[in-house]
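hiii, so i know i said id send this last week but things got crazy w the move. better late than never?? heres the sequnce for the chain we talked about at the cafe, plus the structure i predicted for it. fair warning i was half asleep when i ran it
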Amino acid sequence: PDAFLKKIADDNAAAPGTHVVAGSVRPAEIGRWKARHPGVKLPNDLLGFLKRSNGIRFHVATASPIGSAARLLPLREIGTATSMLYQDQEEEDEALPGSWLALSDDAAGEQFLVLDVRKRLYLDVDPADPEEAQEIGERFEEALDWLFARYLDV
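okay and structure toks below
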């Protein structure tokens, strides 16, 4: 996490406003999220990161529908992968497991970081072919490596 956040700080030092890092998640927000998602326990390493940064906007762009190229979602927006990947589409794919939570949003809608809370596994999911989800790893650090390669190592 330190190297990930340092890269963001370095990018912002070179070009101010490239990325926006939110502050720490508040305990009240954690309580509200747990109340909305009873029985769902997020991994401690993910919660630890959210306590450092409760959301990140990568490559801020006002013309983008989400205000940036991509986002690591703040806790309040973390919800089922089905609702994030297929938002308002009528032909929403109900086949996605209910244990899949979307952790990122991508302006191009191409790839999403998903956490399978049942298996405790981070996944790279393409909404066009979710059955072919690629395993990223069991630790949030591995998910950060995926985010780094996708949005920071450009």
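btw Residues 2-14 form the longest helix (13 residues). thought thatd interest u
miss u guys!!
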